[in-house]
């Protein structure tokens, strides 16, 4: 088993941040495994999974020295995958934007014990009306016995105009 350090990063965006993170991790013999980063409202934010030697304090302390970033870490032991008890499904949503839409979607998914593994949302101007349209792409982990048709019906009840599509 490998020790892994899960690091969250947030701070003002600037050129070269990923290079600084990668160089710091490599200098401390960490191995960059997985990551996801975004720029939102001028802020750089994301998460990276790093294989580390020992407890990983050296890697975390070195990362925390990068100016202008709030960096936090959690050490975990990477476990081998257990028997498949869930299915991975992709979901796409489009509808008129309104307050509480993400809460409503998350509530329905939680009701069916469906875990959100990845969530990307954005707004766009409607082609015909110019009204703001809400878009979401989700990767979900659902119990094998969950009725995805029932989940679909419940999601469609959130709003008359919400388009719900399971992706392949």
Automatic annotation (TrEMBL):
Entry-linked PROSITE patterns: ACT
GO BP annotations, alphabetical order: regulation of DNA-templated transcription
Domain of life where this protein originates: Bacteria
Gene3D superfamilies for the chain: 3.30.70.260
Domain ACT: from-to ranges: 90-168
InterPro entries from the UniProt entry: ACT-like_dom_sf, ACT_dom, GcvR, UPF0237/GcvR_regulator
PANTHER family: UPF0237 PROTEIN MJ1558
Name of the protein in question: Glycine cleavage system protein R
Organism expressing this protein natively: Deefgea piscis
Lineage per the UniProt record: Bacteria, Pseudomonadati, Pseudomonadota, Betaproteobacteria, Neisseriales
């Amino acid at each position: 088993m490998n020790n892994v350090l899960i690091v969250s990063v947030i701070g003002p965006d600037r050129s070269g941040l990923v290079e600084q993170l990668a160089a710091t991790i490599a200098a401390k013999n960490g191995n960059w495994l997985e990551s996801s980063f975004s720029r939102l409202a001028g802020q750089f934010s994301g998460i990276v999974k790093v294989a580390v030697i020992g407890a990983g304090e050296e890697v975390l302390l070195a990362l925390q020295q990068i100016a202008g970033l709030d960096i936090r870490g959690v050490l975990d032991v990477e476990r081998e995958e257990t028997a498949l008890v869930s299915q991975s499904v992709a979901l796409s949503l489009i509808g008129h934007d309104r307050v509480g839409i993400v809460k409503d979607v998350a509530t329905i998914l939680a009701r069916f014990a469906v875990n959100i593994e990845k969530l990307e949302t954005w707004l766009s101007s409607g082609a015909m009306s110019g009204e703001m349209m809400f878009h979401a792409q989700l990767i979900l982990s659902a119990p094998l016995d969950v009725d995805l048709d029932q989940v679909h019906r419940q999601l469609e009840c959130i709003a008359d105009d919400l388009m719900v599509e399971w992706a392949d």
